[in-house]
Amino acid sequence: MTTHEKLDVRGQLCPIPVIRTQNKVKTLASGDTLEIICTDPGALNDIPAWCEVHGHRLIDAKQAHNEIVITIEVVR
Amino acid sequence: MSTKKVAIIASRGTLDWAYPPFILASTAGALGYDVKMFFTFYGLELIKRDLDLKFSSLGNPAVPMPFPVPTFAQSLPGVQKLMAAALKQKIKKKNVASIETLRQLCLEAGVELIGCQMTIDLFDYQRSDFMDDVTIGGAATFLAYAADTDINLFI
To answer: How many angstroms away from the CA of A11 is the closest CA of chain B?
Structure first.
């Protein structure tokens, strides 16, 4: 059974969104999904790059108004 | 795939220059890379137990100013202190992580911090001036690791 979790890093700047994502994903299992809500536009590139290095799957990355929502699936 | 390795030499000890090495090291830690940082000369300020980082716009002409300030005016007594206070205020207001936080994140990610023994001797520092978590070593300690890394940075 997989879980879907959220991580709120609004207001945080580089490198905190990536580091908080890493720490959160450590607690998740393969197949779990994580929704990262942030305001740092740099995260739109940084979190997908972080995903690629670890082999996690990027499901969606969208920006609406000043908020960015990135959804990933943990792959181990 | 073997773990990627990163070696960073941090040679600057001011508040502005404290950011690049710690941001890169903490992020490399989050990417799962093996990271060692070697602090030499003024970089040693960054691993002091109590941080008291200074900032100067003198010799630093790219510092953004709210309005143009001639260099001679920047050198007047107290002006540099004001600039440092303004930078600290800006860091806080923009919610940029503090150097203390980034340093802690590096340690939590398993980044090894190495202080340069020769510089410690040169400036008459004591081991107790530095965090307990740092290792003290010399050029050979760094090079033995750096020779087999994927990313090598001198900052």
So the answer is: 7
Between vectors from CA B28 to CA A34 and to CA A32, what angle results, nearest 5°?
15
Topology, domain A4-73 = Translation Initiation Factor IF3 (3.30.110)
Give the global pTM. Answer: 0.91
Q: Which residue from A11, A14, A53 is facing B31, i.e. has the nearest CB?
A: A53
Convert the pLDDT of each residue in B136-148 to its tens digit: 999 999 999 999 9
Would you call A15 and B32 a contact, using CB atoms and an 8 Å cutoff? no
Domain boundaries, chain A: 4-73
Give the separation between CA A36 and CA A69, rounded to whole angstroms. 6
- Please choose, from the candidates B6, B38, B51, the residue with its C-alpha nearest in 3D space to the C-alpha of residue B119: B38
Question: Is any Cβ of chain B less than 8 angstroms from the Cβ of A44?
Answer: no
Q: How far apart are CA A54 and CA A45, in angstroms?
A: 15
- pLDDT digits 0-9 by tens, B60-70: 999 998 899 99
Given a contact cutoff of 8 angstroms between Cβ atoms, the answer to whether B113 and B93 are in contact is: no
